[in-house]
Design a protein that fits this description.
This is Penicillin-binding protein 1A. In the C-terminal section; belongs to the transpeptidase family. Pathway: Cell wall biogenesis; peptidoglycan biosynthesis. There is one protein chain. The chain is α+β, with helices and mostly antiparallel strands. It contains 24 helices and 23 strands. Helix 3 packs parallel to helix 9, helix 9 packs across helix 10 and helix 10 runs antiparallel to helix 11. The protein starts with a helix and ends in an 8-residue tail after the last helix.
C-alpha cells in the first residue's frame, strides 16, 4: 500500500510538473519583445545648465542621468549586489534556492519575503504589474530567462542601475547621488554607496531625507553584508560605518541657487517643444554663470536680511506640545519641522527650553543648539515675561535660527519682504544673473519678470534723455520750487507734488537736478517737452506706453515696469544708444548634443539697433556718473571705480526701492518691496535698501575688470567743463525753465507737508 501511495504521489507530482512545463513552454513564445531593453532609451529629463556647464535645474517625471556600466564605480555595483543579488553573476536569471526559502518562510506565516534577482526586477519593472500572484511570478521567471539569453550580465546590471526608482523623483543611481549628496556618482564614498543601495527595496521608507534613522539602519546592514562578502576590507568597513553623511535636505539640489532661472528656461523651452520637453533629454544652456549667480543670490539675501534686522520680532511661526516620552517627542518634532523647511542658512528649530538668558532648541537634523548673549538680542521682546502669547518664545515654539557664517547661533525670522535682482551684458543682453525672489520654494512668483512696479526716480533719466532732443542741455537752469497743477493737466485730480525731503533750492542746472533727484526739476522738464512726447520717447527703451500714461506724474516714475524691462532700458545708456533685449538661453541640444535651436541676439554696435543718439547716451551717462559721485548713490564709491553710473528710486510712501546702475559692460537692477504694497519705513530709500544689493553683486562681478573710460562721441562740444550738442552751443536752445517765477501761494504749507513724495 505504501508503495502504491508513493507511486500515486510521485505520478501526480510528475503530471503537475509536466503541466507546468507545458504551460511555460506555451507561454514563452508569447512573451513580449525585449526591444525596450536591447535598445534601451529611457525617458530623459529636461536639463538646464549655466553658461559654464553647471547643472542648475532638471524637469520631468523621471529625473535620470544615463550612465554606462563602465562608468559606474565598483563600490556602487558591489553595494547593490550585496543587498539585492550577491549571486547575480552566477545564476541564470532565477535564484531557485532563494525562491524556495522565501516560499517556506511565507508558508509559515511570517512577514512576506521576495526572492527576485536583479534580472527578475528588470523584467518586472519593464513588463509586469506589481501584483503578487503565481501567474505574474511565472511570467517574471520566464522573462528573466529570456532577458539572460538576450543581454549580457553587465547590460542587465546597467539597465537596472539606470532604471530603478530611488525616491525624490530620482531614477537611477547617478541621479540619486546628485539629489541626495550633491555629488557625481563617481565621487561617492563606500558609506554613501551603501545608503543609496538601500533605497530600491522601499524608496519612501529608507529615504534619508524623510526617514534618516531608518535609512541609516539599513545602510549599516548593507555595509555589514559588503564586509561579510569580502567586497570591502575591515578598515573600509570601520571607516564607512562611522562616517557621518551629509544628506542634502535643502531645496537647492544643484550647488547653485538658480531656481528662478531654471523655471524661466523651462517655460521658454516648453513653448517650443511642448510635451517632448520632459522626455527627449533636451539640454538647455543659459547665459548665466555660476560666479555671477552666486554673487547675486548672496547679495540679495544679505540685503533683505539687513532690512529684516531693522524690523520688530514677529514671534514664533507656530507652537506644538512636545510629548514627555523621548521617542514620541522626537517623532513630533520631526513631523512639525517637516512643515517648515529650511531656507538656506535660515534654519527652523523647535524650542526645548527658554529663558531671557538662554534658549535651547533642536533642528531637523537632530542637533541640539544653545543660543545666548547677542544671539538673543533680536528676539528679546519674545523672551520677556510680558510678551503676548502669540509672540512668546517658550517650549514647543517653532523659531528660525542662523549661524551667520560664524559658530554661534542667533534667533532670526523669515522676511515678509521680497526682492529681485538682474544683471545683463550691455553689449548683447545676455543675462548674467537673475534672482526672482528671496526663496523660490516659499514664493515662486518671479519678481524680475512678473512684478510690475512703479520705478519712481529710477525712471527720471529717460525723461532727461527725451529733453535733450527738445533743446535742453545738462546746463539748462530749472527752478526747484513748489508747483501745482489742476485736474486737466494731470489727467486726474489737482496735484501739488513735493520733493522727497520737502526742501527746495531754487534755480539749478538740469545735471544737479538729476544728481539730487529733485522732483520739481523732473516735473518742470516733462511739462516743458510735453507728457505725450515723453511717453512716446520712452518706448524707445522698451517701456510699454499703456503702462506709462502721458501725464505729468510720469516724470516721477508713476507708471509701471519690471526689473527685466528696466535692465534693457538702462543698457541703452551703457552701450552708447543701442537697444538690446535681455535673453536667457544660448542654445538647446538633444541628448546626443545636436543643436536644435540657438540664440541670435541683436548686438549693440549695429546701427539698425540704435534707438538714441550716441551723444544723448553720453550726456545721460555723464549725469548718472554724477549721481554716484555726488548724489544719492555715493555708497557705490566703495567699489573704487570711475566707470559706474546709476540712479536710485524710491516711490510714493516708500513702497518700492530701486537701484539701477551699470558700467560699460554690465547693467544691474535691484528692487525691494512687499508683494502687497505697503510702506517700507519712512527712512527707507533705494539708496539704503536696493543699492547695497547692487554693490554686493558688482563687487564680485567687476573684480579684476579694467576700468573703461568712455570716449566722447563726435558732435559734442565742451565749454567750461560741460558738454553741449554742437548745434546747441551755450546761449542757444532752452537755457532755463521757470527761473524767477514766484511759487504758488501754497508754498509755505507745502514746505511743512509730510515727506511722502517720490525720490
Amino acid at each position: 500500500m505504501l508503495l502504491i501511495a508513493l507511486g500515486i504521489i510521485t505520478g501526480t507530482g510528475l503530471a503537475a510538473l509536466l503541466i507546468v512545463v507545458f504551460a511555460l513552454a506555451m507561454a514563452y513564445p508569447n512573451l513580449p519583445a525585449l526591444d525596450t531593453l536591447t535598445d534601451y532609451r529611457p525617458k530623459m529629463p529636461l536639463r538646464i545648465f549655466s553658461a559654464d556647464n553647471v547643472l542648475i535645474g532638471e524637469f520631468g517625471e523621471e529625473r535620470r542621468t544615463l550612465v554606462h556600466i563602465k562608468d559606474i564605480p565598483t563600490v556602487m555595483k558591489k553595494a547593490v549586489l550585496a543587498i539585492e543579488d550577491d549571486n547575480f553573476y552566477e545564476h541564470s536569471g532565477v535564484y531557485y534556492k532563494g525562491i524556495l526559502r522565501a516560499a517556506l518562510h511565507n508558508a509559515s506565516g511570517g512577514a512576506r519575503q521576495g526572492a527576485s534577482t536583479i534580472t527578475q526586477q528588470v523584467a518586472r519593472n519593464f513588463f509586469l504589474s506589481s501584483e503578487q500572484t503565481l501567474k505574474r511570478k511565472a511570467y517574471e521567471i520566464l522573462l528573466a530567462w529570456k532577458i539572460e539569453k538576450s543581454l549580457t550580465k553587465d547590460q542587465i546590471l546597467e539597465v537596472y542601475m539606470n532604471q530603478i526608482y530611488l525616491g525624490q523623483r530620482a531614477y537611477g543611481f547617478s541621479s540619486a547621488a546628485q539629489i541626495y549628496f550633491g555629488k557625481d556618482l563617481k565621487d561617492i564614498s563606500v558609506a554613501e554607496a551603501a545608503m543609496l543601495a538601500g533605497l530600491p527595496k522601499a524608496p519612501s521608507a529608507y529615504n534619508p531625507v524623510v526617514n534618516p534613522k531608518r535609512a541609516r539602519t539599513r545602510q549599516q546592514y548593507i555595509l555589514q553584508r559588503m564586509h561579510e562578502l569580502g567586497y570591502i576590507t575591515t578598515a573600509q568597513y570601520q571607516t564607512a560605518k562611522d562616517e557621518q553623511l551629509k544628506i542634502k535636505t535643502d531645496s537647492n539640489e544643484f550647488g547653485v541657487h538658480a531656481e528662478y532661472v531654471a523655471e524661466m528656461a523651462r517655460q521658454l523651452v516648453y513653448e517650443q517643444f511642448k510635451e517632448e520637453t520632459y522626455t527627449r533629454g533636451l539640454n538647455v544652456f543659459t547665459t548665466i554663470t555660476k560666479a555671477d549667480q552666486d554673487a547675486a543670490y548672496l547679495a540679495l539675501r544679505r540685503g533683505v536680511m539687513d532690512y529684516e534686522r531693522r524690523q520688530a520680532y514677529r514671534g514664533p511661526k507656530s507652537y506644538i506640545d512636545i510629548p514627555s516620552k523621548k521617542e514620541e517627542a522626537e517623532e513630533a518634532i520631526e513631523t512639525e519641522l517637516a512643515e517648515h523647511p529650511d531656507s538656506d542658512d535660515i534654519i527652523a528649530a523647535i524650542v526645548l527650553q527658554a529663558s531671557p538668558q538662554q534658549v535651547t532648541a533642536v533642528t531637523a537634523s537632530g542637533e541640539e543648539i544653545k543660543i545666548s548673549g547677542a544671539g538673543l538680542a533680536f528676539a528679546k521682546a519674545g523672551l520677556a515675561e510680558k510678551a503676548p502669547a502669540n509672540r512668546r518664545i517658550k517650549r514647543g515654539a517653532v523659531i528660525r535660527v542662523t549661524q551667520g557664517g560664524g559658530t554661534t547661533w542667533s534667533i532670526t525670522q523669515m522676511p515678509e519682504i521680497e526682492s529681485a535682482f538682474i544683471a545683463a551684458d550691455t553689449r548683447d543682453g545676455a543675462i548674467r544673473a537673475l534672482v526672482g525672489g528671496f526663496d523660490y520654494n516659499r514664493n515662486k512668483f518671479n519678481h524680475v519678470t512678473q512684478a510690475w512696479r512703479q520705478p519712481g526716480s529710477a525712471f527720471k533719466p529717460f525723461i532727461y534723455s527725451a529733453s535733450l532732443e527738445r533743446g535742453l542741455s545738462p546746463s539748462t537752469l530749472i527752478n526747484d520750487a513748489p508747483i501745482s497743477f489742476d485736474a486737466g493737466q494731470t489727467g486726474g485730480q489737482a496735484w501739488e507734488p513735493k520733493n522727497y525731503d520737502a526742501k527746495y533750492e531754487g534755480p539749478m542746472s538740469m545735471r544737479r537736478g538729476l544728481t539730487k533727484s529733485k522732483n520739481m526739476v523732473s516735473i518742470r522738464i516733462l511739462h516743458r517737452i510735453g507728457a505725450k512726447y515723453g511717453q512716446e520717447y520712452t518706448t524707445r527703451f522698451g517701456f510699454d506706453a499703456e503702462k506709462n500714461p502721458p501725464y505729468l506724474t510720469l516724470a516721477l516714475g508713476a507708471g509701471a515696469t519690471t526689473p527685466l524691462q528696466l535692465a534693457g532700458a538702462y543698457a541703452v545708456f551703457a552701450n552708447g544708444g543701442y537697444r538690446v533685449s535681455p535673453y536667457l538661453i544660448t542654445k538647446v541640444t538633444d541628448s546626443n548634443g545636436t543643436i536644435l535651436s540657438q540664440a541670435s541676439p541683436d548686438p549693440a554696435g549695429e546701427e539698425g539697433n540704435r534707438v538714441i543718439d550716441a551723444r544723448n547716451a553720453y550726456l545721460v551717462d555723464s549725469m548718472l556718473k554724477d549721481v554716484v559721485r555726488y548724489g544719492t548713490a555715493t555708497k557705490a564709491l566703495s567699489l573704487k571705480r570711475t566707470d559706474i553710473s546709476g540712479k536710485t528710486g524710491t516711490t510714493n510712501d516708500s513702497i518700492d526701492a530701486w537701484f539701477a546702475g551699470y558700467n560699460p559692460n554690465v547693467v544691474g537692477i535691484a528692487w525691494i518691496g512687499y508683494d502687497q504694497p505697503k510702506n517700507l519705513g519712512n527712512k527707507e530709500t533705494g539708496g539704503g535698501l536696493a543699492l547695497p544689493i547692487w554693490i554686493g553683486y558688482m563687487s564680485k562681478a567687476l573684480k579684476g575688470e579694467p576700468i573703461e573710460e568712455r570716449p566722447v562721441p563726435g558732435g559734442l562740444i565742451n565749454v567750461n567743463g560741460e558738454y553741449y550738442y554742437a548745434e546747441n552751443p551755450p546761449g542757444t536752445g532752452v537755457q532755463s525753465i521757470d527761473v524767477g517765477v514766484r511759487s504758488t501761494p501754497a508754498e509755505e504749507a507745502v514746505k511743512d507737508a509730510v515727506k511722502n513724495e517720490l525720490f
